[in-house]
Amino acid sequence: IVMGIGATVAGLAAARGQGWSGAEVGWVRPACGVSILLWQPASIEGRIIDAATGRIGFSHVALDACEVDSQGFPLVIDCRPAVGVDRVPLNEYGERKPTRVWLPLMAGRELYGCVRGRIGLPYDALGLVLPKTGPVGGVVCSQLVFECMPQSLRKKVPPWPPSRPVAPNDLARGFGAVPGGEDIVLQRRRVDEQVDVDRRSGCRCVGAGQHGQGRNLER
């Protein structure tokens, strides 16, 4: 069953075969926190992925590391069929609004550095079907984000069935994200990298350091 679902999703994704490739960074927005973006399904394959991984309501994940292009439009780092890991203009997602998971400062920097280092990797269609680790042969979106997360964030993600790869819904479970819900703010409370989950509607925060004080950058 898993193989059949995975093959169907991979075939649909390959047939779609569209996406932006090679957006260049103009600069990085100052005083901006790194966030994980969880997207609700917008296609048949997305709905299949959601249904096969628990029906939490998500099928795709990307990373917003505050990069913008030369005209000032936001970029995200994504992994897409026929494109692989690359920077994509946020406006390519249209009117879709993701649920954001705002990361503590140091965890966000570590995740961003790892994901940025994997730009150029191919999209691995088999990664939708077969569990694998490591970047050899390519990655899919949820594997990219999960494997680049520091251990303090990875341990928040509950175990998923060993017969399938990690999915966006698994990340959502770990962070308490729900479709159409409030943004999630992970706040670092102690130096030992433990994190706390806070929900603030519309909050734009960067996690802070030793005293657990986040900075609200936008209301």
Account of the protein in words:
This protein is α+β, with helices and mostly antiparallel strands. The radius of gyration is 16 Å and the shape is globular. The strands form four sheets. The chain has a five-stranded mixed sheet with strand order 3-2-7-8-9. The longest helix is centred in the N-terminal third of the chain and has 15 residues, at 2-16. The chain has helices at residues 2-16, 44-52, 105-117, 141-148, 151-154, 168-175, and strands at 27-28, 35-39, 60-64, 67-68, 75-80, 84-89, 99-102, 184-188, 195-199, 204-206, 215-218. Strand 8 (184-188) and strand 9 (195-199) form a beta hairpin. The model is unreliable at 14-19 and 201-219 (pLDDT under 50).
Describe the structure using short key phrases.
219 residues; alpha+beta; two-stranded antiparallel ribbon; 6 helices; 11 strands
Strand order of the largest sheet: 3-2-7-8-9
**Average predicted confidence as pLDDT:** 82
The secondary-structure class comes to alpha+beta
The major beta sheet can be summarized as: 5 strands, mixed
Q: Helix amount, in percent?
A: 25-40%
Computed over alpha carbons, the radius of gyration is: 16 Å
Provide a count of the helices: 6
| Strand content bin | 15-25%
* Low-pLDDT residue spans: 14-19, 201-219
H-E string: HEEHEEEEEHHHHEEEE
Rough outline? globular
Tell me the span between the first and last alpha carbons: 45 Å
Number of strands: 11
